[in-house]
Amino acid sequence: MHGNIAKSMVWYTVTDPRDDPLNPIPGTLRYGATMIKGKVWISFARDMTIKLTKPLHVGNFTAIDGRGATVHIAGGACITVYKAHDVIIHGLHIHDCQPQTAGQIMGPGGKVVSIGPGDADGIRVITSSKVWIDHNTLSRCQDGLVDVTQGSTHITMSNNRFTDQDKVMLLGNDDRYSPDRKMKVTIVYNHFGPNCNQRMPRLRLGYAHVANNLYEGWGSYAIGGSSGASIKSEANVFIPKGNKEVTWRGGYSFYSVGDLFKNGASFTQTAQIGPARLKKYGPGQRFQVASADAVRDLTSSAGAQKL
After folding, report:
1. How far apart are alpha carbons 252 and 73 in whole angstroms?
2. I need a labelling partner for 132 at 20 to 30 A (CA). Which of 59, 190, 211, 254 fits?
3. What's the alpha-carbon Rg for the chain, to the nearest Å?
4. Out of 30, 124, 199, 204, which one is annotated catalytic?
């Protein structure tokens, strides 16, 4: 995400936890995300809890960086990346998000936009690309923790902690939405659990590389897919509470390589990955995957960190 840094970038500090969705107050998170034109890097002056009254829409070349403070986005609306690119969301505690009614908000670039009713997702990524969701702690949202939909691609979710949630991560929300066939998502170094039930992730149509994650128990399933989805599960550690199948199957191509299955975990593989599958990522997008034996160390600092 080197494109987020430039001489013209604005360094903005949040000093005020209040939220006005239509008339953002200087010093608030919404002001920094919507009223500053061009590239912006948002940090926080101190620990705070922000209750968003309407979803926060994040625009192009925006970084929200919670390092140096303990920042909670909780108890109200949460974060939406809509038709945007080059976005970083780092170091936040996002939890207890609530459904929202239709209305108007201030959007990126200082433009008022109308929005429909909102599901209670922690982070929604819609028709966006080059989004990095890193070192966040997400839990207890009424719908899901992360949704990536409607043609979004080149999404990376790394070093996050997901806990206490039924539906964790949805990649593609409609079996008939063909633009999601281009979706590419990397899910790496995350810690799922305890008390997560399903969708870690649940993928439709696109491709996901799921590598070096720790799965600490699940209810229905850990990884699922349908409508021709392709998932490469590589060097993850799966630890159910008892004998459990990792996958849910609904018309997809699943491949497991180097995964570590403990405590009765099992993985129903449906495909081998050959050169055509590996070409889903270009040379600049591939990375070295560690052995599953290193996953506990690699995920030991997953979640928001006050550095």
Report:
1. 35
2. 254
3. 19
4. 199
Please enumerate in sequence order all residues whose Cβ is within 8 A of that of 60, keeping only pairs 6 or more positions apart, or say none.
84, 85, 86, 87, 108
- Tokens 């506990």 correspond to what residue? 296
Q: pLDDT tens for residues 220-274? A: 999 999 888 899 999 999 999 889 999 987 767 888 999 999 999 999 887 655 4
Nearest residue to 29 (alpha-carbon basis) of 41, 14, 40: 14
* pLDDT tens per residue across span 74-111: 999 999 999 999 999 999 999 999 999 999 999 999 99
> Is position 46 annotated as part of the catalytic site?
no
Phi, psi for residue 90 in degrees, rounded to 5: -135, 135
> Tell me, what amino acid is at 44?
F
pLDDT tens figures, 128-148: 999 999 999 999 999 999 999
Q: What are the phi and psi torsion angles at 32 (to 5°)?
A: -65, -35
Q: Of 24, 17, 21, which is closest to residue 44 (Cα–Cα)?
A: 17
Question: Does 26 sit behind a cis peptide bond, omega within 30 degrees of 0 on the bond before it?
Answer: no
Q: Is 150 left (phi over 0), alpha (psi -120 to 50) or beta?
A: left
- How high is the pLDDT of residue 278? 45
Instruction: Give the separation between CA 39 and CA 21, rounded to whole angstroms.
Output: 21
Instruction: Write down the architecture of domain 71-298 according to CATH.
Output: 3 Solenoid (2.160)
pLDDT beyond 90 at 114 = yes
- List the structure tokens of 87: 């976005």
Residue 238, φ and ψ in degrees, nearest 5: -115, 120
The Cα–Cα gap between 253 and 251 comes to: 7
> Domain ranges in the chain?
71-298
